[in-house]
């Protein structure tokens, strides 16, 4: 537990709720692991290509998820994730690893892991899969920023605006890259 860590999620909001979310996931120290922008187009590296494959596979692992627009940039990923019918899914956390002396297994499981099928569980699984792949493929220096940024998309107008932002991100990269040193967080 990090006592001084600022809470960045909306308080009292259930991130297993049906809805659309705009997420940004950054590499540690904003390192360019995913490729580079050339002529306003993203040219994916080997890690970037695998990041794209794993992103597109998210709905295979989380049947309650639909993907919207996304883009992989040199040092971050922007994407729209939709959670649909979350209440139809059973918790898939194995109970075999629960300590024998734990009196309430449900409380224990809830305390050690994000809710099954929640936005945090989806992002954690995605980040873990790519990190594991990098380790197995001699890219041991790859690392994510520990957290991610999310925004709850509240209506169609906002969805459309975010979709356009994501789509045009590579075209604006030169402007963004010039200002990276002023960014405090993703």
TrEMBL record:
Top-level taxonomic group: Bacteria
Alphabetized SMART domains for the sequence: Y1_Tnp
SUPFAM superfamilies reported for this sequence: Transposase IS200-like
Protein name: Transposase
All residue ranges annotated as the Transposase IS200-like domain in the record: 16-169
GO molecular function: sequence-specific DNA binding; transposase activity
Gene Ontology biological-process annotations: DNA transposition
UniProt xrefs under PANTHER family: REP-ASSOCIATED TYROSINE TRANSPOSASE
Organism expressing this protein natively: Labilibaculum euxinus
Phylogenetic classification of the source organism: Bacteria, Pseudomonadati, Bacteroidota, Bacteroidia, Marinilabiliales
């Amino acid at each position: 537990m990090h006592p001084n860590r600022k809470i960045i999620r909306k308080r009292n909001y259930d991130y297993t709720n049906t809805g659309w979310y705009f997420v940004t996931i950054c590499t540690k120290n904003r390192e360019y692991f995913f490729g580079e922008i050339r002529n306003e187009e993203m040219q994916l590296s080997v890690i970037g290509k695998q990041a794209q494959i794993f992103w597109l596979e998210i709905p295979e692992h989380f049947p309650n998820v639909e993907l919207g627009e996304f883009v992989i940039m040199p040092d971050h990923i922007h994407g729209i994730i939709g959670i649909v019918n979350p209440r139809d899914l059973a918790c898939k956390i194995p109970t075999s690893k629960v300590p024998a002396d734990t009196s309430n297994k449900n409380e224990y499981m809830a305390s050690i892991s994000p809710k099954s099928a929640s936005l945090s569980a989806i992002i954690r699984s995605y980040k873990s899969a790519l990190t594991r792949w990098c380790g197995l493929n001699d890219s041991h220096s790859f690392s994510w920023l520990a957290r991610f940024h999310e925004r709850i998309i509240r209506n169609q107008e906002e969805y459309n605006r975010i979709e356009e932002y994501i789509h045009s991100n590579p075209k604006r990269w030169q402007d963004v890259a010039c200002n990276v040193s002023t960014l405090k967080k993703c």
